[in-house]
Design goal:
single chain, about 30% helix
Amino acid sequence: MVTGAEYSLQAQSTKYDGLSYEKADCQKFAELVLIDCGVKKPDGKPYDWKGSNSMWRNALSWKGTVQECIEKFNGIPLGAWVFIVKRDGGEVERGYHDNEGNAKHIGIYVGSGNPYGDVRDSTETRTRDGVGYRKLEGFNMVGLPSMLDFTHDATEFPLDFPIMDKVSKEEALIALETLTKYIKGV
């Protein structure tokens, strides 16, 4: 089973840089990273939710506020999904009557030590079209995707190794990505 840390590392791959929102919205980006990690449904097909609301309701083994997550897990686990959930009645318009709120956006938590941002996501704004990084601020809910293993994961990417003085973070991430693929036999 793929760990949350492996999923987080894959989400940071440069292969997604420049991927437009039209080709991969926030939901599709999270699904693409699962596909690239080799994670599929039990029937062997790739996951294909009906938006972030469907992911919020149907794909999580645990969910709560950012603060609840930090208290329960001593931080936000790498690879966790972070959501912007509004309790503004929008979920009723979409056919949900469960008081779970309206999940308007999803991102993948990649760690507060990342110099580019805590979250990797896809969005369409005045300043960005597609996959990029942003700060955790604004995300109010966290969910642990049930198809990933969070039992042995750290909550932060270890950026304090001595080797980090000799190589850039991007070089280290590429090396880790290569090593992960080698270990998995991809």
